[in-house]
Write a structure and sequence with these properties.
By secondary structure, this protein is α+β, with helices and mostly antiparallel strands. Helices cover 32% and strands 34% of the residues. The protein is built from 2 helices and 5 strands; from the N terminus they run αβββββα. The strands form 2 sheets. A 3-stranded antiparallel beta sheet has the order 3-4-5, with no helix packed on it. A hairpin with a 5-residue loop joins strand 3 and strand 4. The protein is globular and about 25 Å long. The relative contact order is 0.17.
Length: 71
């Protein structure tokens, strides 16, 4: 259990310094694959990827998304 927590912290540190972004507790997005972004209901954002997929960004992660993509 301690090693799992350590691994998660290591992954979290790497995503902060890279092109990856946590959109929710279960989703990480490669910011170089984002096509466009638009606001959604309840303060969330919809991120559209270049492959056509739409990913919802949880409210708690919206400020970090804005910072990473320069909004």
């Amino acid at each position: 259990s301690a090693s799992l927590v350590g691994s998660e912290m290591c992954i979290r540190d790497r995503t902060r310094a890279s092109k990856f972004f946590r959109a929710s507790k279960s989703t990480i997005i490669n910011t170089t694959k984002i096509s466009h972004v638009k606001p959604s209901m309840s303060g969330r954002f919809e991120v559209y990827l270049k492959n056509g997929e739409c990913v919802l960004v949880s409210r708690q992660y919206v400020p970090e998304l804005k910072k990473q993509i320069g909004l």
